[in-house]
Design a protein that fits this description.
The protein is of the alpha/beta class. It has helices at 10-20, 47-54, 68-76, 93-96, 119-125, 161-181, 183-188, 217-226, 293-296, and strands at 2-7, 25-30, 35-37, 42-44, 59-60, 81-85, 103-107, 115-116, 130-137, 147-154, 200-201, 233-237, 240-250, 261-265, 268-272, 277-284, 291-292. A seven-stranded mixed β-sheet has the order 5-2-1-6-7-9-10.
Amino acid sequence: MRIIFAGTPAFAAETLAALLKSEHDICAVYTQPDRPAGRGRKLTASPVKQLALDHHIPVEQPVNFKLDDTIQTLANYEADLMIVVAYGLLLPQKVLDTPKHGCINVHASLLPRWRGAAPIQRAILAGDKESGVCIMQMEAGLDTGPVLLEARCDINSDDTTEMLHDRLAKLGAQTLLDCLKNFHTYQNTAVPQIDTQSCYAEKIKKQESLMDWQQSAKALLRQINAFNPWPVAQTQWHGDTFRIWQAEVIDGTNNSSPGEILAVSKTGIDVATGDGILRVKQLQVPGKRAMMVRDFLNANLIEVGEHLG
């Protein structure tokens, strides 16, 4: 098929890379406008744009699709299908109707669970045991269209967002290729979503990273895993911000107040929570890189009985 691809981050670039190795013709790539990045705030192309340019594919970067000229440019590519992966722009009905067979989306959740911007983080935060990808026929609603094909994968107790993201990116690319092999069959047998079973995966806010030690150790571990690599779970110690990158729940009970440090060793810092004990294994203090606790203790003194938070 003649395909327009629309996507922006690394998750989408994984799918584009797989399509470029397939028999399909990628006639154009749509991606978000270049954004400032890095310490110098230099305008930087998205991973999808960089990949498209490397393969000499035309790149379009509209701010939105409100102008007739923008719609006409899209129509001029005469695409059979538009594939959308983490593009970041809502597509109006005019866009959805332009390609011959409409637009399909690779979405990183098992729809209708976790519609919206942050399905990977929200699944980990909620303690879901399973995630996956869905190939969905797009319609005007937010992630509401019928599902052509899905693939599932487990969420492990130590999975961070980065780890699950990378697995789902590969799974999404492969599932899309599988879908395209029998596209018309899958399109004709697409399964409507049950709206009453849906959850909204709201975009992650930086203020959500602040840890509340009144919560259980299991809930705090999910928070740490979900916010790795961004915005990173954090707490306070002597007025400084501790960013916690890695932890584990350990066996044991305690009668101490939440946030109290129960034990300190090279293996970790054991902290009382509202229910259970959390062992902090990797942390970061202001101006320093993330480090394992054993390295932190070489230059810092933290004592039993002190409190975090």
